[in-house]
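ok trying again, last paste got cut off:
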Amino acid sequence: MRLVQAGAIPINWLAVGSEIMHGWVDQPKAPAYAEVIYQHLPSWKHLNNHTTSIKKFAAQ
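nice, full thing came through this time. structure:
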């Protein structure tokens, strides 16, 4: 609570990891980090699968 009172903004591991993986396309560790996210947030995996299928369909 003291940190918040001093002006710090609390964040979680997902926000920190996403900042580290700022350019997901160029990061060799991005697929491994994505798997960690999918284990904790299954809805993100569903969203990724949906987005990937739309991109494949649009490319046809």
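cool. The first helix runs from residue 2 to 5. The mean pLDDT is 86.
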